[in-house]
Amino acid sequence: MGSKTPEDQRRSPNESSAYAPIDAINPSKPAAATGLIKGALEGEDEDGDDDGDGDRVVDDLKSGGQSASGKKKKKKSNKKKRKVVTMQQTTPPRVALATLFVNQPYPFGEIIEFVPRDANLRRTTAEELRHLSTVENMDDDFLHDYRQAAEVHRQVRQHVQTIAKPGVSMSHLAQEIEDGVRALVDHQGIETGDALKAGMGFPTGLCLNNIAAHWTPNPGAKEVILQHDDVLSVDFGVHVNGRIVDSAFTIASTPVYDNLLSAVKAATNTGLKEAGPDARISHISSAIQEVMESHEITLNQRTIPVKAIRNITGHDILRYRIHGAKQVPFVATQTTQRMEEGDVFAIETFGTTGKGYVRDGVGVYGYGRNEHAGASGGLVHASSSTKALLKTIDQNFGTLVFARRYLERLAASGVKNYHLGMRSLISSGVVETYAPLVDVEGSYVAQFEH
Q1: Environment class of residue 20 by beta-carbon count within 10 Å: exposed (0-12), middle (13-18) or buried (19+)?
Q2: In a 10 Å sphere around its CB, with 0-12 CB exposed, 13-18 middle and 19+ buried, how is residue 14 labelled?
Q3: 158, 276, 349, 381: which one has the fewest Cβ atoms less than 10 Å from its Cβ?
Q4: Taking 50 as the threshold, does the pLDDT of residue 67 lie above it?
């Protein structure tokens, strides 16, 4: 999902008293409590008893093997039951620790973090702490969720590529994508909060010809049918536990547009090769533009250079947020931003035969909760239906962008006549709207996102 560039920018320990009696703080413990046992003395067993078997043997020899009463004395077995002995440290300690801790970790001591009173003496800066926090989050669950979302996306888009033929409706394509995603993640998103566990990362984008991004079929709108001469970009996201996989591709039924499709694919692959920890975003952008604009396309006997769109960018992805703070433009730009270890980026490119600059089109692509508006959003005097709608949005979508279709699926939760309440949320700044992004009429735009 492309990120539209804003108009005004590019781009203590516990302490004890020293005078407290030591014996009161650390009372002496018996050997058993400390895990230590005294070394076995010669001629003593573990219980400390003398072994008298040798004396009994001598007495038996003197008496000829008989007792004083003349009866034959039974031999006493010298065999003792074997005890399972757990290796313990001796007193004084002499057993090697490698023997005591076989295939076991050594015990942890008390760990106390040093917090200097002077902030200037801190050895870990705020930037380093942020980096460490990001890397720490890249655990097994992080990779498991991303790999699951990526596999779901791969299987669904392979199916869509087989049915995206001239004559198919955009509503049917969107339904196939969204039904496939929800079935594979096993979350239908009907019950309250279920869509936040896994499902659509943002509304399905189905953009035809000069529409570059952010168009989706809405309920009640006129049906749009794919024609033989159309260029169709398909962009959808899958999330698992808020970890979003964003990928897109463009298809065309006629080979006339092959060079346009090749341009965006080559540019995206260039961006991927240049990306990595500490990579300068300005360098990536320059490389993308160079490759993109080395292509041209012939339409109606006119040779047209492929242009990189200037005001849509690639972007980093945060948890439950499709657009982060970092942007990867498709044209050379001056920025000090770098990619960092732990960042998740959507490397995508848009090429066009038009002006290379998009504007807002007609209609609504989706809605998104304004995370800066607060929990109540200043809706003190709002109607009860407006507050109920905001509660539904928070419980089912959070900060995920959603379409009208997704909201109307929640009819069982009481979401029916939501239009008036949505207008109130939008006017108060609690909810933001996303409009389609279009180039000039008659142009063609292609998108490719790894």
Answers
A1: exposed
A2: exposed
A3: 381
A4: no
